[in-house]
Amino acid sequence: MTSRDGYCWTKKDGLKAGVPTIGLINPPTNVTDENVNYDVVVIGAGYCGLTAARNAALEGLRVLLLEGRDRIGGRSWSTNLDGYPYEMGGTWVHWGQSNTWREMMRYEMEKDVEESADFSRGYNQFELNSPAVTASMSHEEEDELLISATKKFANVDGVFGRKVIPLPHDTFRTEEAKALDRLSAKDRIDQIAAELTPKELAVLEPFILLFSGSTLEKTSFHEYMHWWAMCGYRYEGCLDMLITWKFRRGQSSFAIRFFEEAVATKRFSYAFNSAVKLVKDTGAGVEITVASGKKYRAARAISAIPLNVLREVTWDPPLPKGKVAAASVGNVNQTIKVHAEISDKDLRSWTGITWPHNELIYAIGDGTTPAGNTHVVCFGGDHKHMHPEENIEKTKRAVENMFLPKDKKPEIERLVFHNWTKDEFAKGAWFFSPPGLLADHLDDMRARHGNVVFANSDWALGWRSFIDGAIEEGTRAALEVRKELDPFNQSKSSL
């Protein structure tokens, strides 16, 4: 089944909009009576909304899930083309992301993962292409270079951040950590500029932007340090936890399990292609109006809407000033993620950085397609932003430019991508904050508003912006609502 999301280009067919995914839901709704009064309406079918809806239904509540897309997964979904999965958004999982791994164990999917990197064959090299440095080196040399650079960048306290952020799930425990959120990544690089070699600087800057998908000036140094702390305060932990393990059949093979379990409760209703336009808190409950004009009612609502989309919904009564201010600043991540199928099997063990003169800055060999070609995944950001579908020849050149000059250009057989910037239900990729946003507004983002609970990975406390953070937030929201609506708990609390 083909979603309206995503793009695919091939030599034979050219550029086509819409790609197949097992996350597409058909029929798009199972609602037969629009006059039902639900216990809770969940807005958004990403991992946060799926977790909240499933948990609430399992615990006995009558649940309605509303989603503007035709599919589940939100910013983490996969397509399967000619027997090979391409991850359009969030990709990697790890047992260090405990919420995610718990759910994988729940669905007996712990063996359904494979490693992205395979340095056992092929070129087995890292290419660095920048105005200051052009070099080809081994992956061991690549790691040594990045270990040195990232340690200098993170060493704000003599112990690589362990003193300033001793507890990654409570990053503002120290006053020093709050000060870090006033700095940009560019500010921090300027502080240590004399310590960095040209090679270290050439790899450090794109490595940071691989996290934020923004510019160095708009990247919060604190949020980088939060990721760093979650990864064990070391570069090796970043590699291990952030870019190693992925699902063999794609993220949508995981997300569909949440949805199917919710359906099996018989207390779960859903309506896709139902973009929410108005959320009205009546005092006794909520009334939600979607784009078609249909209205749904419930005692509570859980909004799993990303930060950058909150302003696209009308809230009655209006959202508090702090939440509005946070949404006005927003998530700065405008990552460009382009998959390329290239007819060179030796690229399987290749990685490269081309910075800052190219739209795509970081790329890795990520798999071998059934045709025997190499799948290379490329990342760009806001520094030289492009819309890949608007000029496919420009996009192909950006992929070709990732490789050091060779006798011939790589032969691109296929390009696959999703434009997250133009996505009306995301307006950007995974969350990353600009300086000051979290210090000023993290509590505002997390706060409820009357009968509406706000839950999203954008303001999770642990793996913020990750699938794990989405599951964390969905679990929290469902529990909060269930405690309020469950008669047993209400009577117990009055004793």
UniProtKB/TrEMBL annotation:
Does Thylakoid count among this protein's keywords?
A: no
Which cofactors, if any, are listed as required?
FAD
State which Enzyme Commission number(s) the record gives: 1.4.3.-
Q: Which UniProt keywords apply?
A: FAD, Flavoprotein, Oxidoreductase
What one GO molecular function would you report for this record? monoamine oxidase activity
Q: Which reaction does it catalyse?
A: a secondary aliphatic amine + O2 + H2O = a primary amine + an aldehyde + H2O2
List of residues binding substrate: 379
Top-tier EC class: oxidoreductase
One Pfam short name = Amino_oxidase
The UniProt record lists the Amine oxidase domain at 48-481
Q: Which family does it belong to?
A: Belongs to the flavin monoamine oxidase family.
State the name under which the record lists this protein: Amine oxidase
Source species of the chain: Pseudopithomyces chartarum
State the organism's lineage: Eukaryota, Fungi, Dikarya, Ascomycota, Pezizomycotina
